[in-house]
């Protein structure tokens, strides 16, 4: 079985010079990948471009730091994309308190997009940065606690992980698990149920250790698998099969 990358951004300008060549290699080397939208523009672009992905799926949605102009018209536009068979999730959505953006607008956009996901019975991909407590509290107290989804690029400790796992969410892990100083993150992986783990690249961001400072790409997800297999003391072929089944179950692929 081949690797899968459940979160990447190969349609960003970082790949303009070699995107088509990269996609051809990805067709051969990956079982499948998920290209994730970050705003209304990329959502529409992915909707139009997804026919070029022979083994790729897409999401539509608006990143929390891009919610300044998000409104009900945005929701109506997102609804138009959902019938596309390539659309398998709403994302990436969530809360990001690292940057100085309007938190009230983040919450409002999050609530509206979660309502959309609930109405259409589609999974969500969460982006959470410097806001794990706030995100958990919101989900735990809201009518959306029973949605299916994944906390993308998880970077918290085991105590934080347990809270989201108890709500039924999966956790996505990326290149940072290969960084020498991230022992706590590797301990988190070691202690959570293996049937709730997904692996991603978030490319072009967060390259694994051998490529720090360089552009990341979905093919480098293999380094994430290799480190995780070592941490979990499991055969990498078995790990690939488990993660493949996890992704199929969550995203109904």
TrEMBL record:
GO terms for cellular component: cytosol. Pfam families: TatD_DNase (PF01026). Gene3D superfamilies: Metal-dependent hydrolases. GO terms for molecular function: DNA nuclease activity; hydrolase activity, acting on ester bonds; metal ion binding. A divalent metal cation 1 binds at residues 7, 9, 92, 202. A divalent metal cation 2 binds at residues 127, 152. InterPro entries: Metal_Hydrolase, TatD-like, TatD/YcfH-like. Keywords: Hydrolase, Metal-binding. This is TatD DNase family protein. It comes from Oceanotoga teriensis.
